[in-house]
């Protein structure tokens, strides 16, 4: 059994773990698809999003706003329509309004009382700045894809986070990575020997959602952050 009280810092994936990105993605994409008479279920939209996003994040780095524009473009190519300029930007423009899960802010404030908190996120710096306001806590370190010029599941993003935390005296064995995506986070973090918590936000739901399916072995599984915070001694 993992001893949660041995860690000094929690590193978080942001979108899907802290911020309800699936709701944000759906609210941005559904009107676009409906305007072109494309009928897809919520699970279908999310799973197409996962395929398109992951393909666009491979190869030469592009910023996340351009990745999201590319996702809309790929929906058009896949389903036979040409998005307008407004529709192309709908997904990227929506990120600033994506909201935390109901348990996120209180759990972060609780965890901050004893632990340092950090972010490792596939996002642009300016987009995360909007999300940080919603999250209402000060993070001790923030590592974005824009800073690293790569996207998880690349281990480079984790190497940068580990190096920055080492600079403030935190060794890798004192880092606990917390994430909802096995594909983006649990697998690469485990490959570097980091301890991991899988926040299974899709517990009881069908399909793999907005992240590609993957197999990994987290040290702990919880349904939400409130459950994680309850397991740590303060």
TrEMBL record:
On whether Hydrolase is a keyword of this UniProt record, the answer is yes
Q: Name one GO molecular function term.
A: hydrolase activity, acting on acid halide bonds, in C-halide compounds
Query: What SUPFAM superfamilies does the database record attribute to this sequence?
Result: HAD-like
Nuclease listed as a keyword: no
Provide the alphabetized UniProt keywords. Hydrolase
The protein's name in its UniProt record: Haloacid dehalogenase type II
Write down the superkingdom of origin.
Answer: Bacteria
């Amino acid at each position: 059994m993992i001893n949660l009280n041995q860690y000094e810092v929690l590193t978080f994936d942001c979108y899907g773990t802290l911020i309800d990105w699936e709701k944000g993605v759906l609210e941005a994409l559904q009107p676009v698809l409906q305007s072109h008479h494309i009928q897809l279920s919520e699970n279908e939209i999310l799973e197409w999003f996962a395929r398109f996003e992951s393909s666009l994040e491979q190869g030469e780095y592009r910023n996340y706003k351009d990745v999201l524009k590319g996702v809309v473009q790929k929906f058009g190519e896949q389903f036979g329509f040409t998005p307008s300029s407004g529709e192309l930007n709908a997904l990227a423009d929506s990120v600033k309004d994506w909201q935390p899960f109901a348990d996120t802010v209180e759990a972060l404030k609780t965890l901050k009382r004893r632990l340092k908190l950090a972010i490792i996120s596939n996002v642009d710096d300016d987009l995360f700045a909007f999300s940080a306001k919603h999250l209402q806590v000060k993070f001790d370190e923030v590592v974005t894809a824009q800073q690293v010029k790569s996207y998880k599941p690349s281990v480079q993003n984790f190497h940068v986070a580990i190096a920055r935390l080492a600079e403030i005296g935190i060794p890798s064995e004192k880092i606990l990575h917390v994430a909802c995506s096995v594909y983006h986070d649990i697998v690469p973090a485990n490959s570097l020997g980091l301890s991991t918590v899988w926040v299974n936000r899709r517990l009881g739901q069908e399909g793999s959602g907005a992240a590609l399916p993957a197999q990994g072995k987290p040290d702990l599984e919880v349904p939400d952050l409130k459950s994680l915070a309850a397991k740590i001694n303060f």
